[in-house]
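haha ok so turns out i had the wrong file open the whole time. this is the CORRECT one, sorry everyone. sequence first:
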Amino acid sequence: MIAVAALTYRSYEECRTAFEQMCADVAGLSGGVHHTSEGNGWVWRLRDPAGGALAVSSRAYERHSTCQAAYERFRALLAELGSAGVIAWEDTH
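then structure:
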């Protein structure tokens, strides 16, 4: 697991639509690496233009550099998916 949604969605379709929009909008989204709330590790957050969290790392990292690399890989993945125009979903739902 790479990331988890920071929001709750009422349906699978709503979540999927939000993910597709996040992929399309990733260049305009901010975010970064932060200490965990316990202060003993690092997590990343991807934020919408208003500053609300959209996605967060699925786990805490021991090292800032490892967390930063994971954040950058996630953003690159979103950009790649967004540039494809259509995400090839394997509908198993």
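DSSP finds two helices and four strands in the chain.
again sry for the mixup
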